[in-house]
Design goal:
Layout: H1 9-38, E1 43-44, E2 51-53, E3 56-58, H2 60-64, E4 69-74, H3 86-93, H4 99-102, E5 106-112, H5 116-126, E6 132-134, H6 140-143, E7 147-148, E8 156-157, E9 160-161, H7 162-168, E10 180-181, E11 184-191, E12 194-202, H8 212-216
């Protein structure tokens, strides 16, 4: 195994200082990218999808659970499988307590194409409490480009067609035996009784996600703090870092 070079404390501090400058530049660049993401337009979801969850049939609006925003993790679970994807399971393992997202008016749910009767025992085995719904029998996974079957719809993943992936050398995404599943994450905004799709990310766009702040950074309303651009999206829902509105997870009302 190759290990870091051993140096004096002074040399280490000098190297660390140089790296810190690059880290700060990356943080500023990330803030600008997040602001640009929040400026994206949105598309109304006018198709009536039907999901199945612990309370039976559910609509996309039901997945919001009365909140303004919804983050959906597209969990790979083919209807023919008896257990969910190992990598997707690792992703859910790292998701923190949802009370902090909910305090900012944002719900989180996993959605898979497997029947709910398969999801339920696997969820119990993993010990997860995160809401998890089945989209079995609906076109939701195909419309959001995480399930692939060319008899249902042309293949498009991470905003590239199958041909574009083949030309760019990323055909490993799209050359599996059909039907097949791939991971992704989508964000939605609710206004009244209408739901809007604001953002989706796939592939390595999922790297580094799992915390409250990284999920909020993908949403249209962001962290809902005054410093964020564009202005006018912070609200009473927000819980700015260091403010009294940030509580222990068992102190939130919901």
């Amino acid at each position: 195994m190759s290990l870091p070079q051993i140096v004096s404390r002074d040399d280490w501090l000098a190297a660390r200082g140089a790296l810190l400058a690059k880290e700060k530049a990356a943080t500023r660049a990330r803030d600008e990218l997040n602001a640009e993401r929040r400026r994206l337009p949105m598309v109304e979801v006018d198709k009536e999808y039907v999901f199945e969850g612990p309370d039976g049939k559910a609509t996309l609006l039901d997945l919001f659970d009365g909140r303004d925003q919804l983050v959906v993790y597209h969990f790979m679970f083919d209807p023919e499988w008896d257990a969910g994807c190992r990598s997707c399971s690792s992703f859910l393992d790292q998701v923190g307590h949802l009370a902090h997202l909910r305090a900012r008016g944002t719900s989180f749910a996993a959605v898979s194409r497997a029947p709910f009767t398969k999801i339920l025992p696997f969820k119990a085995r993993m010990g997860w409490t995160v809401p998890w719904y089945s989209s079995y029998g609906s076109e939701f996974n195909f419309d959001f480009h995480v399930s692939f079957d060319e008899t249902v719809a042309p293949i498009s993943y991470n905003y590239r067609t199958k041909e574009e992936h083949e030309r760019s050398g990323t055909d490993y995404y799209v050359n599996g035996e059909q039907p097949f599943e791939l991971p992704g994450l989508s964000c939605f905004l609710r206004h009244g009784d209408r739901a809007y799709h604001t953002y989706s990310t796939f592939g390595r766009g999922l790297d580094g996600l799992g915390s409250t702040s990284t999920f909020l950074d993908l949403t249209a309303l962001g962290r809902q703090e005054e410093w964020e651009e564009p202005q006018g999206r912070s609200s009473a829902l927000g819980a700015p870092a260091g403010s009294p509105r940030v509580r222990y997870h068992d102190e939130y009302e919901d």
